[in-house]
Amino acid sequence: MKDAIKTNISKLHPKRLVTLTETFLRDESISGKIILVAALLSLIVVNSPFYGFYDSFWHQTFMIGNLSLDLRHWVNEALMAFFFLVVGLEIKRELVKGELRKFKTAILPIGAAVGGMIVPALVYFYFNMNTAGSNGWGIPIATDIAFAVAVLALIGTRAPLALKIFLLTLAIVDDIGAITIIALFYAEVIHYGYLTFSLSLMAALFLLRHKLGDKLTLMIIASIVLWVTTHLSGVHASIVGAIIGLITPIHALPNKVSLSERVEKAVLPFSTFVVLPIFAFANAVFVISAQAFTSNPSVFWGILLGLVVGKVVGITLAAWLLLKFRVAELPRGVTMRHVTGVGFLAGIGFTVSIFITELAFTDSQHMVEAAKAGVFVGSFASAILGSLLLVGRFRRTRLNRE
After folding, report:
1. Nearest to 285 by CA among 353, 230, 345, 383
2. pLDDT tens per residue, range 221-242
3. Which residue from 375, 392, 213, 394 is spatially nearest to 303, judged by alpha carbons?
4. Sequential DSSP letters for 378-402
């Protein structure tokens, strides 16, 4: 017995503990479960007598320097920048060392993302053309990257890494498209002076990226400045994290770990176990009521079908056309069935869609309620359909191998 205990203790060498810890942090099925539990808790609280306390808590104003935002906006714009940073670093690694090095592989999720924005908008227009709800066309174009990745993570190691990178790349392009649409069609005020400064700083960081290979402090300062100026410009600043991740040098200097690896190792635990659960708990806000589903059927169905049908049709059709004309090729281990499954997961609009809802329907609470109902039902249905399709695909593949 004593010998067995000694043997087990001897296995807990410091290096082994580090390896076990890193494995736990990178077990995305665990993080996915935590995120979805946090979202479920939020829905329970929102539809309970504690909703008033919950709502007042997230509307508390918190000031840092001269910036004053409520807590939910700090979560969505500041904390989520850390998540987008990890995503940007992962995509950058694939662009430099992985599947996305090939133009034909990289262009596939980009083209699919464009198709996944155009078709949902057309579906929504079909239901709401020449109606008071026509301004909501931007609502079903958005993909909530955090929740889409969380659902894919629940599948675990059965999902090939290339499929996750495909989804991340698609969602980042989708987010950039959504932010551009918000800025062009929904933002009340864009401060072009701050926006010009932000774009100039991005360009400078890109041009000087190789000289910043070991200057972590300078990169942190530049990132904070970029986040502040982007926020002040009126553009959703969370995307700054992805931009910094894509700019950060990935090649290591002689005898040193690359800046990209150092940043990802430092930020990953915070992003996985702090940022994403808080984000989920702060944003799964939907008060279930009959009025929400019946107040404006055209808005409700336009958004629901835009997310559930428009997203998967747009993504799959765009990918098929790119493959058909040999402009793109599928990543290793990924099939068109995988692409279709990811197309459904991209229909999880959630927070970004709700954000556009509040910008699109400032004068009608009935339309806001109908739109939120469409977003929640559409996102939930997309998550279920995508999961069933992908899990079925992976199970069938395993049986064939056996």
Report:
1. 353
2. 999 999 999 999 988 898 899 9
3. 375
4. HHHHHHHHHHHHHHHHHHHHHHHH-
Please spell the DSSP secondary structure of 197-221, one letter per residue.
Answer: HHHHHHHHHHHTGGGGTT-HHHHHH
Of 77, 58, 81, 55, residue with least CA distance to 67: 77
Rounded Cα distance between 84 and 77, Å, is 10
Tell me the sheet residues that pair with 128. none
68-103 pLDDT per residue, tens: 999 999 999 999 999 999 999 999 988 888 878 899
Q: In this structure, what is the dihedral angle of CA atoms 360, 352, 142, 171, given to the nearest 10 degrees?
A: 160
What distance in Å separates the CA atoms of residue 392 and residue 396, rounded to the nearest whole number?
6
Q: For the chain, what are the domain ranges?
A: 29-401
| Single-letter residue type at 174 | D
Instruction: Return the CATH superfamily for domain 29-401.
Output: Na+/H+ antiporter like domain (1.20.1530.10)
The full DSSP string for 46-107 is HTSTTHHHHHHHHT-EEEETTEEEEHHHIIIIIIHHHHHHHHHHHHHHHHHHSGGGSHHHHH
Integer angstrom CA distances of residue 154 from 48, 221, 387, 396: 28, 36, 9, 18
What is the C-alpha to C-alpha distance for residues 178 and 158, in angstroms, rounded to an integer?
30
User: What is the maximum alpha-carbon separation in the chain?
Assistant: 79
> Which whole number is the average pLDDT over 264-273?
89
Separation between Cα atoms, residue 390 and residue 157, nearest integer Å: 12
pLDDT digits (tens, 9 = 90+) for 145-173: 889 988 988 876 667 888 999 999 999 99
